[in-house]
Design a protein that fits this description.
The complex is a heterodimer of chains A (299) and B (337). Chain A has 299 residues and is α/β, with parallel strands linked by helices. Chain A is 35% helix and 27% strand. In chain A, the strands form 2 sheets. Chain A has an 8-stranded mixed sheet with strand order 6-7-8-3-9-10-12-11, with helices on both faces. The two termini of chain A are 33 Å apart. Chain B contains 11 helices and 12 strands. The relative contact order of chain B is 0.14. The chains are: A alpha/beta (299), B alpha/beta (337). At the A-B interface, helix 7, helix 8, helix 10 and helix 11 of A face helix 8, helix 9, helix 10 and helix 11 of B.
Chain lengths: 299, 337
């Protein structure tokens, strides 16, 4: 279990806006993921969570830094070319918006079977269609949906098709970029159960990106908190929720709604002032596995 | 206490190629002055449709098929568009889900707020309008209003845009504010700020608010009373404490159980099996029966009436009938806090 699957080292990504202005979307982010682990990445919108995910998936080319997947530097062209078949099959992503990530002109069966036909994998269940049917039943939908188009499905169903497509390759690493935002509470629970099942039964490691902190607490083993492109705190889930150290983490945790009117009304929300945010700190280990962004010489 | 808004047996149908969709079915509730009523339900359960019906912002294909809307003691069910225009903004105004599309991208924020004021008081002098805009921007928590008066929506973040939309909604001092999922498009931290603001406005200005949401956690923060909607009907209504601590309808149990906050340490999150029924041809009995593990025989044949639990707490489930078998709530009955 302790084997390291993904090692992100000093990752930075800069977006250019016009001639002079640049945005540091990701700024010197480092973290590691073990095999079989669910790592949660939380933060407000615009904090660079999705950019990290896209860099890991080779969708963006990072400005600086290294991403090692099973010891292979995926940003290095020569190494990527050498291993590209394995890398493309082993890493899968689920996007936030299932309306735009599924081709509107393909049927559900074609969408789910496409990765297999691209990689020339001989379908273990006879035909691609049988394989698609199996994957679909795995995410809790029956064969009647095989010939439908994405527009005929509801949001939750579309998201499940996107998950089935990702799982059809039996990935080693699944990157889920806000898969449950924009879904209903009861459907969110179904998707979360499904992801958890994949992790427990198939040992698939997961990078789970979300801004719903209560779901992250339920699902993830470790959590990283991002703010303005910086990773400000990394810790095991229980430790982070019980003992948050960085002021931004505290503010974020205090904003989770509790489904209890009496407790909720009396609770004080903490604010985080952007001005006090110190970009120049370093991640310091304050407890085993618990890292906080701090000034180097501060206690 | 005088009721601000009374809805009586309201039903709304929408014509669609596949047949008539019964979006709102026989809904009744009242809204007291200065309270926050939350309406919670899955998407497609008719909660947004209900809001639009109250504002009479229905699409052409939709029609009110029965029932009454009584606002401020006047029956407005048959009001024409012209009459409604006088009420909108003054009596009630609405905040929409998406602050990105609710604002005009080509007009500065201050001007858009001023526009809302001028519609109701066209002869107000320029200076007073400006002062009123600044005042509104301060109420909704926009810092440095003088500098921001001239900024455009694209200069604003999501939270700031939602605040601007709220300023426009409050421009003519409405008695009722309808907020249709005001925080769905926003982050957790911003969401908490906007909810606090809603609560603050309600205490400061005494505006009654109908808050529509699909998230029980969000609603807990500011609701006084809440209604749970399912398949176009209100299945449970009561004060926030009653609904959260002593829920009676199996659907409410299902919603609560799927919250991770109430599932700490559990192996699997509880889910509600199946999908909501289509409202083109709703089932004869209780619409929730086929997803309900506690469903009784009668649920499939006859719709349950609203059973009274306390003076403020009602639920529509046959489980509350004296003849029904005793079922313990899976939430552990009354939770003490």
């Amino acid at each position: 279990m302790s084997e390291i699957l993904l090692d992100v080292q000093h990752l930075s990504h800069v977006f250019k806006l016009g001639k002079h202005a640049v945005i540091k979307a990701v700024d010197d982010v480092s973290f590691q993921m073990k095999k079989g682990e669910i790592f949660g990445l939380v933060g407000e919108s615009g904090s660079g969570k999705s950019t990290v995910a896209r860099c890991i998936m080779n969708i963006y080319k990072p400005t600086a830094g290294k991403i090692l997947y099973n010891g292979i530097d995926v940003c290095d062209r020569a190494q990527f070319r050498k291993h590209h078949k394995m890398l493309e099959a082993d890493r899968q992503i689920i996007f936030q918006d299932s309306t735009s990530s599924l081709n509107q002109r393909m049927t559900v069966a074609d969408i789910i079977a496409e990765p297999m036909s691209i990689h020339h994998i001989k379908p273990p269940r006879g035909s691609l269609r049988a394989e698609a049917e199996f994957q679909l039943s795995y995410v809790g939908m029956d064969a009647t949906y095989l010939d439908k188009y994405p527009t005929e499905l509801s949001g939750g169903q579309r998201q499940r098709v996107a998950i089935a497509r990702a799982l059809s390759m039996e990935p080693e690493l699944l990157v889920a970029d806000e898969p449950i935002a924009s879904l209903d509470v009861s459907i969110q629970a179904q998707i979360i159960n499904l992801l958890r099942h994949c992790n427990r039964e198939h040992g698939c490691s997961m990078l789970f990106i979300a801004h719903d902190l209560s779901m992250v607490e339920y699902l993830c083993d470790r959590v990283g908190v991002m703010y303005h492109g910086k990773l400000v705190e990394v810790a095991p889930t229980a430790e982070l929720y019980a003992n948050p150290q960085h002021p931004y983490t505290k503010a974020l945790l205090s904003a989770i709604p509790i489904p209890d009117p009496i407790a909720e009304r009396s609770r004080k929300r903490m604010d985080f002032d952007e001005v006090t945010f110190d970009r120049d700190g370093v991640l310091t280990e304050i407890a085993p596995g618990h890292y906080v962004l701090r000034k180097e010489n501060a206690k | 206490m005088e009721e601000l808004l009374t809805i009586e047996n309201l039903s709304v149908g929408i014509a669609s190629p596949a047949g008539k969709v019964q979006a709102v079915r026989d809904v009744s509730f009242t809204l007291h002055p200065g309270e926050v009523l939350a309406i919670v339900g899955e998407s497609g359960c008719g909660k947004s449709m209900l809001c639009k019906t109250i504002m009479k912002l229905l699409p052409k294909s939709a029609k009110i098929e029965g029932g009454k809307i009584i606002a401020n003691g006047v029956d407005i069910t048959d009001y024409s568009d012209k009459d409604m225009r006088k009420l909108r903004g003054k009596l009630f105004s609405m905040i929409f889900q998406d602050p990105m599309t609710a604002l005009n991208p080509t007009i500065p924020i201050g001007k858009q707020i001023a526009e809302a004021i001028l519609v109701h008081e066209p002869k107000l002098p320029k200076e007073e309008v400006y002062n009123r805009v600044i005042e509104l921007m301060k109420i909704v928590g926009i810092q440095q209003p003088h500098e921001r008066y001239k900024l455009y929506p694209y200069n604003f973040s999501g939270g700031m845009r939602q605040r601007s939309v709220m300023a426009i909604a409050l421009a003519a001092n409405p008695k009722i504010l309808l907020a249709d999922e005001p925080t769905t498009a926003l982050d957790v931290t911003i969401q908490a700020q906007i909810l606090d603001l809603l609560k603050g406005i309600q205490t400061k200005l005494g505006t009654a608010t109908i808050l529509v949401s699909h998230d029980l956690g969000v609603v807990a923060r500011c609701a006084d009373r809440m209604a749970i909607m399912y398949a176009g009907k209100i299945v449970e209504i009561g004060t926030a404490e009653e609904v959260y601590h002593d829920p009676r309808h199996p659907y409410t149990w299902g919603l609560m159980q799927s919250l991770p906050a109430l599932n700490k340490g559990a192996k699997e999150l509880k889910t509600i099996p199946g999908m909501p029924p289509t409202l083109i041809d709703p089932p004869k009995g209780d619409a929730f029966a086929c997803r309900n593990e506690y469903a009784l025989e009668i649920d499939y044949h006859e719709q349950p009436p609203m059973f009274k639990i306390t003076d403020t707490h009602y639920a529509a489930t046959w489980l509350l009938d004296p003849r029904a078998p005793k079922v313990e709530s899976p939430m552990g009955g009354k939770r003490n806090v």
